Amino acid sequence: MNKKTKQFNLWLKEYKKAIIICVSLVVVLGAGVFGALYYFNIIGGTSEGGQPESQEVVQARVEQSKKDGKLRDEAVSAAQSGDTAKSAELYKQAVADEPNVERKVQLQLDQSAVLYSADKYDEAIAVAKVADAFSEDKFLLADWLSRLYEDRQNYPEAIKYYKLAGEWAKSGSNKTGISKEQFYAEAERVQALMKTGKE
Is the model's pTM score more than 0.90? Predict the structure, then answer.
């Protein structure tokens, strides 16, 4: 074999390796994207009974997501321009029109998030607490308030709500699957923050 043939064979070998690596990356990334879409029930999702969701159910989810996004955008715009009354009215109507209790809670917490992002911290907490009357399941509310209170450095309240979220961790509304132990660990972490902040 001459020198040119050896170089060509070496180049071909490296080229094949690069192609294999690229194809492998594409397959892995594709599987990851598909897995994420499947996990979040965007494609091939399953109903609560474990049956595949119909195209109509998936389409309804997409439409609901668009509707929620539009509501949030309008409310954020109003709140950031100082018109928190308009923002509140948008959410009040959406909550009143919503028959599903878990969605009512989520909409109320979305309103709280809008206010929080507009630096209306006390209003955000007050609005979130309205969700307490909607359902006996307090997981979403406790989870949200734990984070709000920690961010505001109200550590005693943050600890209280992390522990409450932990007590409700088996709730069907806990879509993240965070365990009771994880919430309790968060409460301990905040407890340590509180101690170091006082020293």
Answer: no
